[in-house]
Design brief:
The structure is a homodimer.
Chain A (H helix, E strand, L loop, with lengths): L16 H10 L7 H10 L2 H4 L4 H14 L2 E5 L9 E5 L1 H13 L6 E3 L1 H7 L6 H28 L7 H33 L9
Helix pairs in contact in A: 1-4, 2-4, 7-8
Chain A binds a DNA duplex through helix 4.
Chain lengths: ~200, ~200
DNA sequence: GGGAGCATGTAACGGGTTACATGATTGG
DNA sequence: CCAATCATGTAACCCGTTACATGCTCCC
């Protein structure tokens, strides 16, 4: 109803990024349920953007459908389970492409509880710190293993070239995270050797 | 008022992590204003946990004081500016140490808008993708420079051993982030060379 | 004089979480 | 038969953000 001419954005009540993530999953062309989307997000998006809660996914799906960016239908009776399948619309593809073109890229968000704890090391003890970092090292290794497994699946198919590329990126990221944990463990060790630093013979 | 005997936690209506971050800043012993805390967070915590909004810091300070974890006083009249200075209390130190000892370490939160965009590369174009990643590369380099500068300040003082250690960790983290961006740029380049991949001689 | 930075807040909003509720189907 | 998984939601909560309001002081 506005008198302005706006090309791509008649009604863009700008959606939260999570909505674009969900629409992004649908943009690969498959018809999926909320549950499916969750599983897939756990196996892909999780490594670089976390994975939204189920309830959040359902909310975004309803919103996307209200916006005309997706359509849904109940699964046909042949399907054993009652569920609702979502598909992206041309308008949805357009909107997603427009978001990619125009929305400014937000700075990456990092909340690193392990770094926070070491930073407050003066209120902790060496053993606890060491254990915390070691657990994180194992977590990073696990993430690396999982993202590697995910990548192995969709390799060599040009349709999945970009997801595969980001999975490679994820491998590098989590390998670096593991290595940084190792370096931190080494730093912690040298710090603990220092206090009795009245070294007899230099 | 409870009949139970609970050593460290008579009334722990568990605070959000941001409150512990603010209390953590105060745990280094200085008496600071909300504004001071914000500046300091920008120069330290930001590199591994983001930096909360001013309004959030003020809110947490009020809450910490209500809990008895911090006390405040107006700055003395000698100070040119009207402000309120906060100091950690023994109870606050106790509570923070208790949190470090007992609270489970949350998994690190990562929301990487650049990875998200490349993951959706099929809806974008090579030039845009390349520019996005390049900008991120520069962002990571900037973060690296800034954390290095911060580290240079407090080096070699045992009081700041743990913060310095985390600044070293931050340098590794942001260097790795920059290198991962470079690797991603290389991957993007090879992908763009591939489409005319009817290679004449294998 | 005026802009940059100092300093403290209030108000509105909403995104994303956990907890809860419900019920079907599959497979050991 | 019973647990795990599939499948979809509602309700409450609150963290954290942006936008706004206010006024001071420093320095060019």
């Amino acid at each position: 109803m506005s008198s302005r001419h706006i090309q791509y954005a008649a009604d863009v009540e700008s959606l939260p990024t999570t909505a674009w993530v969900v629409l992004g999953l649908l943009s690969f062309g498959r018809e999926l349920s909320g549950y499916d989307l969750r599983k897939w997000a756990e196996a892909s998006v999780r490594f670089f953007y976390g994975s939204p809660a189920m309830s959040q996914i359902y909310r975004e799906l309803r919103r996307l459908e209200a916006q005309g960016y997706a359509v849904s239908r109940p699964a046909p009776p042949e399907e054993p389970r009652r569920k609702r399948l979502y598909r992206i619309t041309p308008a949805g593809l357009d909107a997603l492409a427009g978001w990619l073109r125009e929305a400014p890229v937000e700075a990456p968000v990092l909340k690193h509880g392990v770094a926070l704890r070491v930073w407050l090391g003066h209120l902790s003890d060496p053993a606890t710190l060491r254990r915390t970092v070691l657990e994180h090292r194992e977590f990073a290794q696990r993430m690396l293993d999982e993202v590697s497994a995910a990548r192995a699946v969709a390799e060599h198919d040009p349709t999945w070239a970009y997801p595969a590329m980001i999975e490679r990126w994820g491998e590098r990221y989590w390998a670096a995270e593991r290595d940084a944990a190792d370096a931190l463990l080494a730093d912690l060790a040298t710090l603990n050797q220092q206090p009795p630093a009245t070294s007899p013979v230099p």
